[in-house]
Fold this sequence. Notes:
The structure holds 2 protein chains of 2 kinds.
Chain A: H1 2-10, H2 12-48, E1 54-58, H3 75-80, E2 86-99, E3 105-113, E4 125-126, E5 134-138, H4 140-143, E6 151-154, E7 158-166, E8 170-171, E9 174-180, E10 189-193, H5 199-206, E11 210-213, H6 215-221, H7 225-257, H8 259-267, H9 272-304, H10 315-342
Parallel strand pairs in A: 3-9, 5-7
Antiparallel strand pairs in A: 1-10, 1-11, 2-3, 2-6, 2-10, 4-7, 5-9, 6-7, 8-9
Helix pairs in contact in A: 1-9, 2-7, 2-9, 2-10, 7-10, 9-10
Chain B: E1 3-14, E2 17-29, E3 34-38, H1 45-52, E4 60-65, E5 68-69, H2 75-85, E6 86-89, H3 101-111, H4 117-126, H5 142-154, E7 160-164, H6 172-188, E8 192-196, E9 208-213, E10 216-219
Parallel strand pairs in B: 3-8, 3-9, 6-7, 7-8
Antiparallel strand pairs in B: 1-2, 1-4, 4-5, 9-10
Helix pairs in contact in B: 3-4, 3-5, 5-6
Amino acid sequence: xxxxxxxxxxxxxxxILIGLIMVLxxxxxxxxxxxxxxxxxxxxSAIQELQADYVILNSDAEMDMTKSFVSRSNMxxxxxxxxxxxxxxxxxxxxxxxxxxxxxxxxxxxxxxxPESMLLPIVAEGNAINSTNEVIxxxxxxxxxxxxxxxxxxxxxxxxxxxxxxxxxxxxHTPVVFMxxxxxxxxxxxxxxSGEASLTSIxxxxxxxxxxxxxGELLKGIPSYSQEQASLNMMIVFLYxxxxxxxxxxxxxxxxxxxxxxxxLKALGAKTAYLIRSVIGQVLIISVLCIGIGVGLTxxxxxxxxxxxxxxxxxxxxLQSSMLILAVSLVGALISLVQVIKIxxxxxxxxxxx
Amino acid sequence: MSLVLENVSxxxxxxxxxxxxxxxxxxxxxxxxxIAIIGPSGSGKSTMLSIAGALLSPSEGEVYLQGENITNxxxxxxxxxxxxxxxFVFQAANLIPYLKVKDQLNLIDVLSKQKRAKRSIxxxxxxxxxxxxxxxxxELSGGERQRVAIARALINDPQLILADEPTASLDSKRxxxxxxxxxxxxxxxxxxxxxxxxxxxxxxxxxxxISIRDGKIExx
Lengths: 354, 220
């Protein structure tokens, strides 16, 4: 580190410039990752958090819950199937809710299931549902001014009262309203609690008219979910590649510039391994500093975003992204290391060894 | 004998053609002896210096440093030999631009994992560089840079000092001072030295002058 640190201090400007680019690229990776995570939760947190082991869809539905229809007459068959301990139904309706009979209205997703269903989420504020006229709603509706005791009207037929708020329950970029019904109609799917039984054993048991899927598979079936995530993930992948190439180009050019120095150092008795450690040390110092600043910057920017913006930062996600940036930085430095290895100490003596 | 070259040749092949940069050269350098190698450019004098300095291995012949045959040592061992037993003074000093004068010397300690901070201060003081100790190379004059380079070559107390055109970037007065300094160090501390030079005005400082042409020693 003797050489690495002294050079960083001596050539401050050039390393600050490359550092600045690294900070920006790292921040962009963190911010887009945050957006991807935020949008993912906004679109599908209700599915990610679905409290069922498996979901059973009509096999024609191609994993899309809104295209799937199952009938109540088959529910008995499910309950009796080996490996299934408990079955509930789920029907999803995208509706517009009028608040307290005023002009104010909200787009919501209604999840209808049986009373006492495994799907009913834990209430964060207020009470659990006691009748079919009561609902619990995602707390994002609170930001829209909805309070406990407010009434929601769907069309002309149905009026319900908000008795509780829950968290992380959004579907298709709208808040979820949980409602109960003794005999829900137009059921989209069965949800099952299976204990130890595996997906394939249940699939074999219920036959090929139905398809057993996990929450993860269900996410892919949500219209727009995959496309949304894929476009953001592609940006993130590109940013990693850019980070690697920017560092690779920078250290490659710097190493070429320092050929003579490396030749002299080798002639003076510096081992190649020592010089490699020195270059890697510089890459590590710059990367760690820049990633650190990027993390700080991202949290700052995240705090400045409006509350209803779909933006979510998780410390574990940040850590993973940071490690990946560090890894691609080191990969980027590899070409320079090849140069360092190839430099011959004879280059210190002019005119020799031609 | 500090250094012995025994029937050393360096052959470069370019297709069917063969080019002998150094052709069957034998040379002995005694303790306390300071030798100059002169010759036109392309004569092979730099190649010879590189072989003597263990920077290049010969195609034929043997090289003995302090009585030890170093011809076929591994790259790692050769690097250690250079670090511990040979001092280099390069053309245009070749100091590391981002190291202060004191760190130019400390670098050798770092590379050989030793601590000789006191010795480096003494050396710099001896060469009249004590007041420049915290300067970077670009803040020094050409003569000062070359003196730092000599101090750097001496820090590991090598038996053999090799200088590649040490006067190239200096005017004649400064150039002579630098070579005299080098000769004094070699004689006073019983070391050996080889200097490649174009500068005929400093040859009188050396014990022996070897003229080389087309890879062969012409006269001694």
